[in-house]
Write a structure and sequence with these properties.
There is one protein chain. The protein is mainly α and 210 residues long. It has a single domain, classed as Vanadium-containing Chloroperoxidase, domain 1 (Up-down Bundle). The chain is 74% helix and 0% strand. The protein is elongated. The mean pLDDT is 95.
Length: 210
């Protein structure tokens, strides 16, 4: 694990900064950040985040799978397995914590009138808010991709920024609270690191057999 940190200083540096800043943001009353984001909506951001949030879905995994299939064939097969792992962890944690989505929370608090929802967006209203599955999926995918190409600052920065933008999109679209995004990011990077380490161990065993 120490080698992983050493090989990816840019990714972990930005991620650590996010975690530290996030500690402060977690002290805000639940919902405040979403209301502030909602107050600063723009037409461009509406379109951008509606599209970019899909990076945390199967589309993003398909693109990364194809990229790795070209440049690191063995690593590519870790992508669908990572997707399965993320889905399982997201399902278990959401069922365990049973937290209301922002729409339901604001409805219960009588604060829906303060929000201006983007037309056409399907608002999730169940008890599946914590943690953010999209954020977890994005951080798992992009951390894994960055780890597969160590010591490449431009790629590390691109990956961590892309994952962060997916997290922001979930709040901008009023689908998750910051605590959901924060925890999803932590779980995602953890899963990405585990997947990469397992892949390394498998490759080493294959080399020894040859």
């Amino acid at each position: 694990m120490q080698k992983l940190f050493k090989d990816n200083p840019w990714f972990f540096g930005v991620f650590a900064a996010f975690l530290l800043i996030g500690i402060g943001l977690l002290t805000y009353p639940q919902g405040d950040l979403l209301i502030r984001l909602n107050d600063h909506r723009t037409a461009f951001a509406d379109q951008f985040f509606q599209l970019f949030t899909r990076v945390g879905e199967g589309y993003g995994y398909a693109v990364v799978f194809l990229i790795l299939l070209v440049y690191k064939r063995r690593a590519a097969w870790g992508v669908p397995l990572l997707g399965i792992g993320v889905s399982l962890v997201a399902w278990v944690t959401k069922a365990l914590f049973h937290q209301p989505r922002p729409y339901r929370y604001f409805e219960q608090q009588g604060l829906l009138a303060q929000l201006d929802f983007i037309p056409g967006i399907e608002m999730h209203k169940g008890l599946t808010s914590f943690p953010s599955g999209h954020t977890m999926a994005a951080f798992a995918l992009f951390s894994f991709l960055a780890f597969c190409f160590p010591r490449k600052p431009w790629l590390s920065l691109t990956c961590v920024i892309a994952a962060l933008l997916v997290g922001v999109s979930r709040m901008y679209l009023v689908q998750h609270f910051f605590k959901d995004v924060y925890t999803g990011a932590l779980l995602g990077v953890t899963l990405g690191a585990i997947a990469y380490q397992l892949l390394n161990q498998i490759e080493q065993k294959l080399v020894l057999k040859v």
